[in-house]
Sequence to fold (820 residues):
Amino acid sequence: MSISGSMSSALSGLNAAARSAELISSNIANALTDGYGRRELQVTARRVGTSGQGVQVVGVSRELNQTLLADRRLAGANAANMNLRADFLARLGAALGTPEDAASLSGRFATFDTTLIAAAAEPQSNALQTNVVEAARALTTNFRAVSKEIQAARSAADSQISTQVDTVNSALVAIAELNRNIAASSAVGRDPSALIDQRQQLIDQVATVIPVREIRAENGHIALYLAGGTALLDGQPAKLTFSPVGVITPDMTIGSGALSGITINGRAINTGANGTIAGGTLAANFAIRDELAPDAQVELDATARDLISRFQDSAIGPTLAPGGAGLFTDGGAAFLAVDEDGIAARLGLNMAVDPNAGGAVWRIRDGIGALTPGPAGQAALFSSMHSVLNEARLTASGALSGSSRGALSLTANVVSGVANERLLRETEAGFAAARATALQSLELEGGIDTDRELQDLLLVEQAYAANAKVIQTADDMIQILLGM
Amino acid sequence: MRVNSIGDMAQTFMLRRLTTSIKQQASTAAQELTTGYTSNITRKLGGDLIRLSGLESTLSHLKGYRIATDSARLTADTMQSVFGKIDALTDGLGPTLLNAANAESPRMLQGVTTDAVARFGAVLASLNTKLGDRTLFAGIASDGPAVAASDVILSAIEAAVIGAGATSASDIETAVAAWFNDPAGFATVGYLGGPVASALSVSAEDNVNLGFTAMDPAIKDTLKSLALVALVGRGTVIFDQQAVLHVSRLAGTSLLQNQSDRTFLAANLGMVQARIDQAQTRNEAEEAALQLARSDLLAVDPYEAATRMEAAQTQLEALYSVTARLSRLSLVDFLR
Fold:
């Protein structure tokens, strides 16, 4: 022991305190930064020969609960996935509307039916005939609007997939780069914590889109794997490819080859419910594009087909040519069963009754094929249209095929099916969100606590003052020696 | 479980989450309180919209049936008043005619029969009564008149009588009756309307038949008797005094008979009117019941909604004061 030894110890203490204060200030500055891991100075007693002399800074540690982080990522991805699905069903439900709203699909059906009853009472009234035609037009418009909404949701999902694939690709490249930087930084003894923070944020980004498992490799490298074992990043980043299409129409499916799937390093992967990317927002977008929305379109098409077929029937009046279009048409022409896909998007009103298309409203009373107006008091066609709309018929297609229903009842069942699924999905999404929130809350609890940092800072301040005092005292002692 | 620290963000995160969820509750409660209806119908009905849809479509149908019953009632009432008018026009003509014929007073008879020509015209005019733009007794051809003008009909009858070469009273009556029954006679020249209109639905179960036209046998017989008298009045085909008297007697007798046929017709119409009234009452009762059922499905108890809103408000206020307190609880404020 010597005075100069004391000086040296005190100096190392000053140094350690200064480093500590630096880290605390960084911690406090990042108190609100997402993905910032709390830093702490690692110190140990310095040894010179066999005796201790001062304090030695070993390095900087970054606090991290790896298990919690992995759980939080999975739960977050799952919640985002459920949320997207529930959102789609909510949008679909809003487009279909609830029955008490006259502008909903079932409301339009009821209004159309009501105008038929009223027109039967006053068959000579031009106003009531116009009401029937306009109600029928509103019904077709509503079908087309819902169909458009469904296909818009598919297009949106498709373009979102494209954006997400780009995000993942660039994140993977950046993570690979950070991996190298972190290794280099550690090798020369610099603190790589800031780089690790950045890398964690990037992995978070990827994990919401595709659930990944993070594996720690040597030199501070990490590797990312999909649930099925496919490597997204193992030394080299994988390359995801996807080709978006602009506008999606009901006939375009992944099966027909019109829509793209995803390949990882050139190998196609399963994008379905049990596929390798299941559980994230990417899978949810694929589910909307390839399952939920097409299913909804099928049901809507089945309802539209049922409506068209009811009126494209010779029972509805002798003026209807065999094989000719009825009151409702497939884009102006007669409907054929083979053209069922996307019929809701093409549902139209027969031009013969449409005054905007050169038709005349009296044909709604006298028959689509009538050449001249018939007797003004003839109400038979209105009555038969009313009964044709309400009679129980065998539903030809869709999930409800095989049972007999009236047109209104069929619509109510389809709308109700969507509403029911929406409720189920919303409940599931609620559970998933609650779990994700709880885990996120736990993760945040491990974040920066400014009170604790300030308490540490107080200690650092005291330590600094004490070390300085030691130096001053040692100096005094040397002065005393020199002054003798 | 951490013992040594809790991240600042954890607290903020919790407060933010609570604020959002309570605010949502408050706004839902406020909306339900002001509208009186649930803000999420799907959830309230447990995803089953079929019942509501059935209710709504029946309610909507009832609106259509209201138009139908209003229209049917007005039609039936007007028809009944036309029957009344025809009764008033022919009432007393039979006995007067018989009296005049029995008294063998040509001048008196002349007066009565000339008046009958005008009455014949008036009966035809009342058969052409329009309700709005609809001729009531013309069947489905409701946009035109139901019967031709009196001159046209009488001239056609005269031509038929001359064509048949009828001179005796019974021959003339036979010729006139034949013209009325001939498909090329009254059915073509006199009646200008169409076939009977189909029955009208006035509720989901009730159809009423308002198919009364000028071709109805009771009306046609009345027209026939009146036409006979009018022929006498016009004096264009019957010249023999005895024939005049005889024809007048025949016409007077059949006019008396027609009256009871027309009463049956009016009674039939009366029954239809009663059924329309019943249907209307039933529809209104059904509508009221369905409205009640509908509000049972959709309505929210306002007291319950108000209580929820009050609770949310209290909770939110508590949360705000907690937030304010917590944000002051920092070591920084105490380090000097």
Notes: Chain B touches chain A through 55 residues (CB under 8 Å). Chain B is about 70% helix and 0% strand. The first strand of chain B starts at residue 130 and ends at 131. Chain B has one domain: 52-291.
